[in-house]
Amino acid sequence: MKYFIKKLITLIITLLVISFLSFAAFSVIPGDAALSRLGKDATKEQLLALREEMGLTDPLPERYVRWLKGAVQGDFGESYRYEGITVQSLLEEPLFVTVLLSGIALLMILVFSIPLGIASARFSGKWLDVVTNQISQIIMAVPPFFLGMILTYVFGLTLHLFQPGKFISPRESFWKSVEYLIFPAVAIALPKIAMVVKFLRNSVLAQLSQDYVRTAFSKGNTSSGVLYGHVLKNAMIPVVTFLAMVIAEILAGSIVVEQVFSVPGIGRLLISSILNRDYPVVQAIVLYVTAVVVIINFVVDILYQLLDPRVRSV
Amino acid sequence: MMKPLVEIKNLSIRFPEEKGIFEAVKGVSFEIHRGEILGVVGESGSGKSMSALALMGLLPKDADIFSGEILFNGRDLLKMEEDEWRKLRGSEMGMVFQEPMTSLNPVLPIGKQVGESLRLHTKLSENQIREKVEEAMCEVGLTDVKRLCRAYPHELSGGMRQRVMLAQAMVSSPSLLIADEPTTALDCVVQAQILSLLRDIHEKKGTSILFISHDLNVVRALCNRVLVVYKGEIVEEGMTQEVLCHPRHEYTRSLVARIPAYDGRGQGEREMIRLDNVNVFYDVKNGFFRKNGSKHVIHDMNLTARDGEIVGIVGESGCGKSTLCKTILGLHTNYTGNVWIREDARPQMVFQDPFGSLNPARTVGWILEEPLRLRGIRDRSERKKRVSDMLEKVGLDASFASRRPRELSGGQRQRISIGAALLMESRLLIADEPVSALDVTIQSQILELLLRIHEERKMTLLFISHDLNVVRRFCSRVMVIYKGQIVEEGLSGEVYESPAHPYTRLLLGAASMETEMEASYAEGKTTSEEKEAALCAGTGSFGCAFYDRCPAACSICRQEEIPVTALGETHWVRCSVFAEKAKGKIN
């Protein structure tokens, strides 16, 4: 419990620091809300007046606190580009799509890599391990966008298993959109699966040579009893940390893969917003993504503590 | 006569190696009778553990049982189905391993691990298992068993973990217990407790014990019969007393041979090192938001060593020996008081762990050249020459320069460490348990090497060890440390002939099992639990650090400052009881 509270306080501080950084960064960049609303032809007087009216002349900390109050409630102000439309409404659907895509990718990683990693360790040196190892090696080297292109070509254009570019909004049909997202998710997940398999395999193998494994055998355990009863929990400890990093990378990967598969997620919105200097949207996305990564790390820390009693007493 | 419990006939175990085949066990035959304690003695690599592992079916995967039979209760294990053999493991035969720190699963609670073999081999309910587990843990001298069952291995001391190991091997009352160096990694006090525990178990339950060790004193204290194994063969077999008193084989004789002795010659008058009122602290991090504390590790230490002197520092693990070394070397700077070392001393250290203290990525030559580079010798051929000279001096040869540490044995690595220290032209060598990780025969070789070099160079040697036998023979002066404080100091003869401090006496009692075996057992039995509990609880806030383990403790021991009493010109002790006695004499 003490550990939990300690980690929770650290989490809140980190979130505050991140929010401040992402706010401050955008107030340093030239160009602001008044300029973008009035356009380049506006006179100095008009600009100054609007700035005064929008509160842009207030000191930075004051503006930050105002912005943060809104952000906590999901209010990031209005888009610069689309007048009268709030950032929140602009974000809503893409955010859901990206979360769905990342979720499917993560599920694939967990479902495939953990059993494969264990099997690979168990039959280390046998054909299953050798083949898995070879394939992993190749897949790890392929960047997701290229993998995405290959998948589009093979499964979309040749085998017609999905129609590239014809994404169906989850609002219309949830399952249809899930169906479309399967291939983008594969493009994100495959390299990560390869990594996690390799990582887990080595982790299990390292544990198998520990002294406690011999003790477990001396008590009359079968080899699968030793593997599942003793080794796995130990072997998962470093893997959990690794998975946290993988999740952060999934989010980064989805930005690229959304482009390749024309999925209207956060990634596409981010890129178009940057091109259009729609800063409130960019700010909101940056905050969301970093917050998700930090929160996931928090969850992993808690999981870690459940797995490893040695952390608990620290 | 009853059939023996185990009969091993003509067992050969082989390992495939790069260059052909290595035969670890060469046609060994022996038997373990019902209710006997059979000792197996030999150095590491002699194959003494291999036959035990073969008996348990725990041999490494690449091992090949080339020939032989292993009969357990008359049935050949090697001809059994794997599953049938597995069912014997943990129910009919249990095993205790050397390393209590790593032999338990770090992420499972103790209770679950102790009860595992019952869960595997019996149909008892969880409640019945819990009862049996608690019973088994009480039997091995553990207290507060219910709480302990929920604890994890890292919360326990080494001695407690070894008790837990014993409990998990004994919980299903096996007829054979295999103990593979069960006390080697433990302090001598705890060692005596574990041995007496083994004997208890043997007497109460009639369990046969196969006891594997490299330590003759331990085997002599425990075993009825002994086998001496050398290079995969049994070279001698017989009743323990007979084998050890009248060894016939040359190897047994070299085992029995004593540690080389130092006669105290070559002592100079100049002071080499001087510590005045040194207090050493460790920072304790309490976390992000709380104030950091500090732990007082060494209390008010005064120490001097003269040119060419060999000073022994004795104490159990955790008493601050290693912190003391670091402070002297300047590796630990959080201290108060004065540490003075002669300018030309160039202190060097030989570490305990010969496996971890040499850089595995470098060749031996590079490692040995390093001190020369540091001394500014730029000429490569000069450095090479000095290194090959040094390699010969430490008993190796020039060809070792191109090898890497992993290709060397523990003893060879320790020679390299010593060589590196000597190349620094060190006048002050600090040896922190330099032979504790080595086999007996290798131990005496390394000690001989240290003595020979000392003879030649007359440097000062601080010899830190928990092994009293070694210190006694090797050092002219001895300091006994308990919890960061010198509790007794004197010439070797004085401290060993007439130990004053109760802690010194306890140490000596635990170590000299050859002579006072029975007495020390009785002592260990009555107080072991309290000692163990006290070890975990830590000391009170003031007074004598040894108070909670001391058999002679009384109220005056709680006073704040424990006075030092001189017992002779060179011999003094820090104990209230002696101070009172001295006062009584004066009054």
Describe the model:
The complex is a heterodimer of chains A (314) and B (587). By secondary structure, chain A is an all-alpha fold. Chain A folds into two domains: 2-87, no CATH class; 94-312, MetI-like (MetI-like fold, Orthogonal Bundle), CATH 1.10.3720. Chain A is 79% helix and 0% strand. Chain A has helices at residues 2-28, 33-38, 44-54, 60-72, 87-122, 127-141, 144-158, 174-208, 211-218, 223-260, 266-275, 279-307, 309-312. In chain A, helix 10 packs parallel to helix 11 (266-275). The longest helix of chain A is centred in the C-terminal third of the chain and has 38 residues, at 223-260. Chain A starts with a helix and ends with a helix. Chain B has 587 residues and is α/β, with parallel strands linked by helices. Chain B has three domains: 6-105 and 170-256, Rossmann fold, CATH 3.40.50; 271-510, Rossmann fold, CATH 3.40.50.300; 511-586, no CATH class. Helices cover 38% and strands 24% of the residues of chain B. In chain B, the strands form four sheets. Chain B has an eight-stranded mixed β-sheet with strand order 15-16-17-13-18-19-21-20, sandwiched between helices. In chain B, helix 5 (126-139) crosses helix 7, helix 8 (188-205) packs across helix 19 and helix 13 runs parallel beside helix 15 (410-423). Chain B starts with 5 loop residues before the first strand and ends with a helix. Classes of the chains: A mainly alpha (314), B alpha/beta (587). The A-B interface holds A 6, 9-10, 210-212, 214-222, 225, 229-230, 233-234, 237, 307-310, 313 and B 56-58, 83, 86-91, 94-95, 97, 99, 102-109, 116-117, 120-121, 152, 154-155, 165, 168-169, 287-289.
